[in-house]
Design brief:
Helix content: over 70%
Number of strands: 2
Radius of gyration: 25 Å
Number of domains: 1
Strand content: under 5%
Number of helices: 3
Mean pLDDT: 81
Shape: rod-shaped
Largest sheet: 2 strands, antiparallel
Distance between the termini: 65 Å
Order of helices and strands: HHEEH
Length: about 90
């Protein structure tokens, strides 16, 4: 009888632990923050891919490791237009 009681308490403890974790994650919006960071990473990768494929024939194009300088308004507007088309 003692071992059954210990097993029941152990199961209840695990259930309460998981419920507490979900409540804390919900309260601090941890899951939402992770989802938003993953979405931000996906969009940044998409922008970098578009910038890498961007072919600007002007002589004032500034690049660093193959990534165009998005501080240049012309390049930034072109990237925005490319992303709108997709």
């Amino acid at each position: 009888m003692e071992t059954i009681t210990i097993i029941i308490y152990l199961i209840l403890f695990v259930v309460v632990l998981f419920m507490t974790r979900e409540i804390v994650s919900w309260f601090w919006k941890i899951n939402e923050n992770i989802r938003l960071q993953e979405e931000t990473n996906r969009l940044l990768k998409r922008i970098v891919d578009k910038l890498d494929s961007y072919d600007d024939n002007t002589s004032n194009k500034k690049t660093f490791d193959g990534v165009s300088d998005v501080n240049d308004p012309k390049i930034l507007n072109d990237v925005i237009e490319i992303l709108k088309r997709k």
